[in-house]
Predict the structure of unspecific monooxygenase.
Amino acid sequence: MKPTVVLHGYEAVKETLVDLGEEFAGRGSVPILDKVNKGLGIVFSNAKTWKEMRFSLMTLRNFGMGKRSIEDRVQEEARCLVEELRKTNASPCDPTFILGCAPCNVICSIIFHNRFDYKDEKFLKLMEKLNKNARLLSSPWLQVCNNFPALMDYFPGIHKTFLKNIDYTKNFIMEKVKEHQKSLDVNSPQDFIDCFLIKMEQETHLEFTLESLVIAVSDLFGAGTETTSTTLRYSLLLLLKHPEVAAKVQEEIERVIGRHRSPCMQDRSHMPYTDAVIHEIQRFIDLLPNNVPHAVTRDIKFRNYFIPKGTNIITSLTSMLHDQKEFPNPKVFDPGHFLNESGNFKKSDYFMPFSAGKRICVGEGLARMELFLFLTSILQNFKLQSLVESKDLDITAVVNGFASVPPSFQLCFIPI
């Protein structure tokens, strides 16, 4: 119900997010999330709060997210994921939970310094809440609530379930924070929570409070778990739909990595086809069609339009990822979109699934690493088998509001 500017196409999006990055670095309003985050955290904060939170993430990055490199953690989790998939004994299964556990555990090891067993009751309950909320956030009713925020206070509906699930997640995090407060060693921080608690003691900034810590951690969960697990789930569905693509990826894995060692990030530069497939999956599924809303940080004149400070800005990522000139037949899944005539990987400036500019997704590097290492580990160990003919598989997103969510499906992981 507020004036909003929609940017469509590569030129407009690049000009605002990259060239005018500072002016368009505000965070636009999503009422249901504003209600939850109260302007705190990483994703939905603005101005000084955002700069401080961003700084805490840089600290984290320099810290190597603990004493072990991130790649080690993701490789370890990939091995656990493969073991878990073995336990399905090649019988039909819905991969939603297992594929959610892996990226969630990577985030847990960074934030809490420990991972959970895939059968851990508390962990499974947390996963269930995160998964449910990803679907609810994209549901038609929540789109209505975001347009008419007053409804949330006076009407019953699934937004109440959404808010309850958020409370559950926050309580889960608060318990962990209390444990960390008891065991904190200022000279040897073990994880994100330790670093934040130390920063709280050093800084007098209002940004560093227990409440903002809990919201920052739930941001890392929300942004770092569901996005990657949804992409992984969609990846398997697309590979079932296109078995010839899966076979070519497996042939490249066999040639470059073999059977007897875990995939590592160095392998990616020698695997142009696999790299192109992962890029094409992200392009095709168009996970966040309209990005997370931005806002202008001051009055600005843009292309002869006057945009007042605080105006919501919607950037259409679809308009770039499905641009017909850049990607011929954009509605068709084709890894050739990212390969040149010689079969080498071909970059595209239009590939912006993580947004761009000052507020580009802070987890981009981690997400790219997880997608590569988890997918290659799965395909190194299993043949994917669909329960129905590949031509009969429906790959249309079931909800497509805030995010694109794939339909439920089952498959068998046949050990190679």
Remarks:
- The first strand starts at residue 4 and ends at 8.
